[in-house]
Amino acid sequence: FFLGTRVQDGVTHVWFLLYISIKYTTHLIIISQRTCKMKVKVLSRNPDDYIRETKKDIQRVPRNYDPTLHPFEVPREYTRALNATKLERVFAKPFLASLDGHKDSLSCMVKHPTSLSTLLSGACDGEVKIWNLTKRECVRSVQAHEGFVRGMCARFCGTSFFTIGDDKTIKQWNMEGPAYGEEEEPLNTILGKVVYTGIDHHWKEGTFATCGQQVDIWNEQRTSPIRTFTWGVDSINSVRFNPVETDLLASCVSDRSIVLYDMRQASPLKKIVMSLRSNSLCWNPMEAFMFTCANEDYNLYTFDMRRLDSPVIVHMDHVSAVLDVDYSPTGKEFVSASFDKCIRIFPANKGHSREVYHTKRMQHVICVKWSADNKYILSGSDEMNIRLWKANASEKLGVLAPREKAALNYSQKLKEKFQHHPQIKRIARHRHLPKTVFSQAKELRVMKEARRRKETNVRKHSKPDSVPIVPEKKKHVVAVVE
Asked: Cβ neighbours of residue 397 under 8 Å, at least 6 residues apart?
């Protein structure tokens, strides 16, 4: 289309306006023609930016992420994070099932190394039960020992398991039950000279370790130990193999010490003496040098075996002795069982728990395990029950639609973004506790504050540097012996 002409500085300008339609795109071309020059301006758009490839695709909406164009984006995200935090607490229902059937208190539990749905438990009356967690029922019962079942462990391949008891015997059982009409008998029985209090199996070889008055290393094909470790005369409570460096193992001794061993050496490596006795320990499955011990002083301590003079982190929240501990398969969290009738979930790098589970009927929790798929927690307690919990209290079980997954991930990121805001932090941290636990925690806080105030006053009225400041981490380790 001819628009007109204009004469400027002796040069005649001729203006044209051209409309060109090419495949849904309208190009506006303005041509300015001078005597020897031509300037072309084109408005061009790429069809791939806004046209769907098929009719089933979602419509593409162009967005400008310039923050000046979205002044209310942060308040809107904060409101969403607040709502997501509230909904998380609304849907936090962690308890799944209770497995009844034992006639006496639980003393130990073992996860099946290859099957997620199989659990083994031992009781104080000598009975061992094998459970199907999918059906939530007992599939097999064995009268394994006379008296307590002191410990259990499964072979690394999952074909058999070992039990120890007050009758001074070590028994190996087939994981599969006997055929119809056959009697239940152990594959192998070893008669010992002392009562064994703990057992654990090597992660890769046919070797297992027991503890009692000493730590013995056994070969499955022999009836006498192939190596014996002793350090002192006190009894040993538990022994655990390292899942990463499989030749290392550690034990908790009743003289308040934790001893480290190497199967390739003839004598123990190191010993840590603590202020109170440790009941159990567990190695981090992802970090070879880290382990966490459950102590009688209501705390848990995470150590790096390369520097044992002080723990890496002191985990506080329990109000009674901690009896058992187990790591998640990711190594980022662990669960602890306590005499205060609660189980707590701790991040491995933080000093306080993120979750606490309890019921009105649950008594002293003796043993606890974290499932191999990182989704469930199993606890065994004094009132003869095994309880199944969700590791994430508000997690929705079952198959999630893609949009549900996207919404949950978005909500999780929003909660992480605003986690330090006072209102969101208050809602996320709030937990209902039993009255006894709440009052004991309050009393412990008062006692701790009184001790701190007394130390401050003593230091204030003493000569400079005569009363040193001792960090919390160093208060609980008495000595390291090599």
From this structure: 390
- State which amino acid sits at residue 356: V
The letter for the amino acid at 272 is I
Lowest mean pLDDT among 55-69, 256-270, 446-460: 55-69
Query: Could you tell me which residues come within 8 angstroms of residue 407 by beta carbon, excluding any fewer than 6 positions away?
Result: none
Where in 348-430 does DSSP place strands (E)? 355-357, 365-370, 376-381, 386-390
Greater model confidence, 379 or 46:
379
Residue 300, both tokens = 């848990």
Put residue 440 in one of left, alpha, beta given phi > 0 → left and psi -120 to 50 → alpha: alpha
Average pLDDT score over residue span 156-173: 94
Q: What would the two tokens of residue 278 be? A: 């440790």
The one-character DSSP state at 307 is: B
**Kind plus residue range of the DSSP H or E element containing 139:** strand 137-143
Does residue 384 carry a pLDDT above 80?
yes
Give the SS3 label for residue 23: coil
Give the model confidence (pLDDT) of 320-374 as tens digits. Answer: 999 999 999 999 999 999 999 999 999 999 999 999 999 999 999 999 999 999 9
Contact 229, 267 (CB under 8 A): yes
Phi, psi of 465 (to 5 degrees): 70, 5
pTM of structure = 0.84
Alpha-carbon span 40 to 413, nearest angstrom: 48
How far is Cα 292 from Cα 231, in angstroms, rounded to an integer? 21
Cα torsion 250, 152, 161, 164 to 10°: value is 100
DSSP β-ladder status, 38-42 and 118-123: unpaired
Q: Please give the average per-residue pLDDT across 90-119, as a whole number.
A: 94
Q: Report how far residue 103's alpha carbon sits from residue 124's, in angstroms, rounded to the nearest whole number.
A: 9
